[in-house]
Amino acid sequence: MRLVNMVFYMLLFATTLAQLLFNPWNPLNFLQQTPTGPPYYLEYFKNNGYKTDDKGNVWLGEDNAKFMVIARSSYP
Fold first, then answer.
1. Chain-centre distance for alpha carbon 75
2. How many Å apart are CA 39 and CA 55, to the nearest integer?
3. Fewer Cβ neighbours under 10 Å: the N or C end of the chain?
4. Which long-range CB contacts under 8 A does 39-47 form with residues at least 24 apart?
5. Which contacts (CB < 8 Å, 24+ apart) does range 48-56 have?
6. Mean of the per-residue pLDDT values for the chain?
7. In 3-state terms, what secondary structure has residue 6?
8. How far apart are the C-alpha atoms of 45 and 62, rounded to whole Å?
9. pLDDT of residue 68
10. Where is the signal peptide (predicted)?
């Protein structure tokens, strides 16, 4: 009888835990999304005189005439 009770409680515990962890309607967010930083190559281009932004774009020149070196998103 003890074995039956122990198996029953273990099964009850396992199903309760599974419902908490794998509930598709109200998931627990164990892996939170973290914001990413700028790409690693931006510091290299900044040190060599290029202009960069936080999106990952790298260009050369001023507002009147820009030459895109690396375009990761829309034109800055």
1. 23
2. 8
3. N
4. 39/72, 41/70, 45/69, 45/70
5. none
6. 78
7. helix
8. 15
9. 74
10. 1-18
Q: Which amino acid is at 76?
A: P
Write out the two tokens for 8: 């029953």
List, in sequence order, every beta strand (DSSP E) within the chain.
51-52, 58-61, 66-70
Half-sphere exposure of 76 (CA within 13 A, CB side): 22
For 20, the token pair is 């908490």
pLDDT band at 71 (very low <50, low <70, confident <90, very high): confident
CB 60 within 8 A of CB 66: yes
Contact criterion met (CB below 8 Å) for 60 and 76: no
Residue-wise pLDDT tens digits, 12-45: 999 988 887 777 776 666 666 777 777 777 777 7
Half-sphere CA count of 58, side-chain side, radius 13 A: 15
